[in-house]
Design goal:
Elements (H helix, E strand, L loop, with lengths): L24 E6 L6 H17 L2 E6 L2 H7 L9 E4 L2 E5 L15 E5 L6 H9 L5 E5 L7 H5 L3 E3 L6 E5 L16 H10 L1 H12 L9 E5 L6 H10 L5 E6 L4 H8 L9 E4 L2 E6 L4 H10 L2 E5 L2 H9 L3 E4 L9 H11 L5 H14 L7 H6 L1 H16 L4 H13 L1
Parallel strand pairs: 1-2, 1-5, 2-4, 5-6, 6-8, 9-10, 9-13, 10-12, 13-14
Antiparallel strand pairs: 3-4, 7-8, 11-12
The structure holds 2'-deoxy-thymidine-beta-L-rhamnose.
2'-deoxy-thymidine-beta-L-rhamnose (TRH) binds next to helix 1, helix 9 and helix 10.
Pfam families: EarP
Protein name: Protein-arginine rhamnosyltransferase
InterPro entries: EarP
């Protein structure tokens, strides 16, 4: 019997455990530590599991205010609501597990947050134990492939938790990539009208002249920004800077001598023009990356999106105690620069290190190697796609376990 693929636009046929007619139910638990990456990753995963794989998804999240920044239609006053077919529960950890205790087929504990004890007890009592996954933070380090999909038995219950490691190399869980992402990017890049519309609605201005370099800047506070702003001001060709309102905005305000650099602000000094943008939903953030020539990104999810945008980018890694983040930065650089000639590779490494607190960011060097960096960005996106999309890798693993 041959399988007939669904017609384009038809929702995916619901996946079901053990071949039953009901879709796979999945609960994702997300405790927001700080910033937007925890919920950013969970929400993106939830939307893919529901929209592309037909799973029935609930997201338990403890901070609806952080969530609302990247999902403006969320109502922060509601204990339970449904968006894009996904049930969202305002999670009051550690005891709360929704008004009625229902254990899903697949339980995803994001970034080692602790599941409510009552929920774990119910998991153990379920006639068929759920698949329990601990979705880890992304790291490009080699050890990740060895630990991906390793089980860890529970000390008290007859349950086992499996570690699911995102990564940039073979043998890892990969990173999230929606099925329609490349097509959406290609359509944006091919349409002058779409880009002009984006510029008008996001900045209030028409697209910049062709000789301008457009840079998006999403970053934590860093002393490296002051000298970089001066270099951009003194650049031989125009620089247009797009800055989502956030932690770096204070540095922009200081540089331009303004009281703040809130969304809707514009300023010019020398050859540098900057626009402060409102924080958008996640698809809107992708468009910002596509509209730019160079993307400064941070944390985890925007770092991944910059790779799919296939433009040269600079990563501000989430800083950890004892500089534990630095080997992770170098591991990502090793993947990303692998095929670059030594001079371009050195320039990129020095720039990333400087942006992360070690050395002086040299824009002229970065710009000199731009054509090679751009070529490599496209090559790397193709290489990374070989690892497979994380949601697809996760659903394949789940299906193999729920048989
Ligand atoms: O906000 P972050 O710094 O999150 C970080 C990291 O995830 C880090 O690994 C984690 O340990 C820490 O939080 C607690 O950066 P990140 O991961 O890029 O998340 C930002 C999210 O916000 C991402 O999903 C993109 C989204 N976004 C929008 O939706 N709209 C916007 O306008 C912008 C600027 C971002």
């Amino acid at each position: 019997m041959s399988a007939v693929p669904p017609a384009s636009g038809t929702p995916a046929a619901p996946a079901s455990p053990a071949g039953l007619a009901t879709p796979i139910a999945c609960d994702i638990f997300c405790a927001v530590i700080d910033n937007f990456g925890d919920i950013g990753v969970c929400w993106r995963l939830a939307r893919q599991l529901a929209g592309e794989h037909g799973w029935q998804v609930r997201v338990f999240v403890d901070d609806l205010h952080a969530f609302r920044k990247l999902c403006p239609s969320l109502d922060t006053t509601r204990a339970r609501q449904t968006l894009d077919g996904i049930v969202i529960e305002h999670w009051h950890e550690p005891a709360h597990a929704g008004d009625t205790l229902e254990v899903a087929d697949v339980v995803i504990e994001a970034f080692a947050c602790e599941l409510p004890p009552v929920y774990i007890a119910a998991m153990a009592e379920r006639p068929r134990a759920p698949l329990w996954l601990n979705l880890e933070y992304l790291s490009a380090e080699d050890w990740v492939a060895d630990f991906h999909l390793r089980p860890s038995p529970h000390p008290r219950y007859p349950l086992s938790k499996t570690f699911f490691f995102p990564g940039l190399g073979p043998g890892t869980g990969g990173v999230l990539k929606e099925q329609q992402l490349d097509a959406a990017r290609a359509a944006f890049e091919a349409s002058a009208d779409a880009r002009a519309h984006w510029w008008r609605t996001s900045t209030g201005h028409p697209p910049p002249p062709a000789d301008a370099t457009v840079i998006s800047l999403f970053a934590y506070e860093t002393p490296a920004v002051d000298s970089l702003l001066e270099q951009w001001r003194d650049s031989a060709s125009p620089i247009v800077l797009l800055v989502p309102e956030g932690r770096i905005s204070g540095a922009l305000a200081r540089f331009f001598g303004l009281p703040s650099f809130a969304a809707g602000s514009h300023a010019t000094r020398g050859n540098l023009t900057a626009h402060a943008l409102a924080f958008t939903d996640q698809p809107g953030y992708d468009a910002l990356l596509w509209a730019s020539d160079v993307n400064f990104v941070r944390g985890e999810d925007s770092f991944v999106r910059a790779q799919w945008a296939a433009k040269p980018f600079v990563w501000h890694i989430y800083p950890q105690a004892d500089d534990a983040h630095l080997p992770k930065l170098d591991a990502a650089l090793a993947h990303y620069t692998r095929t670059l000639p030594a001079a371009a590779r050195g320039a990129l490494e020095r720039f990333w290190h400087a942006w992360n607190g070690n050395g002086q960011a040299d824009w002229a060097q970065f710009q000199r190697h731009y054509p090679l960096l751009k070529q490599r960005a496209a090559g790397w996106a193709a290489e990374l796609a070989q690892v497979g999309d994380l949601a697809g890798n996760l659903t394949s693993f789940a299906k193999s376990q729920l048989k």
